[in-house]
Amino acid sequence: MLNWVKLAVVSFLLLFVVVGCSSSRPIKKANHKLMKVANEYELDGQEEFVIGEFQSSTYKVYLGNFEKTDLKIYVVNKESKKAAQHFVLLPNHTATVFVADFQMVIIQNPSKETVKVKIGYNKEVEGFRYQKIKEYQMGE
Fold first, then answer.
1. What is the pTM of this model?
2. Strand order in the sheet with 93-99
3. 1-15: per-residue pLDDT in tens?
């Protein structure tokens, strides 16, 4: 009986952590099979790639870093320009980012070398561009 109660409490806490309290959904590890259909983009050193600047609905972005340098990933509010989430995408790692309709994704290459990143989407996404690296404050 005691083990069942412990299992129920642990399951509830795990569910709470997975669901989270944020307006955007948590970041999850991507499926490598999805990376086969992703497009490859070059990102120059000290440059960032903006995704979904004009998107008006939610979407998923699948990211693959198959280079030898870390990439910084931000999920940014389009209006306030504050980051709701950020993480480092390590070399030879993939991730799935869930993006709300009021957010966009920023991929930063802080190194001086040009890198290639694989990017896939679960549906058509509008608004892409390259720009010099900016600083993003954490916010909503």
1. 0.73
2. 39-43, 115-121, 59-65, 93-99
3. 555 555 555 454 444
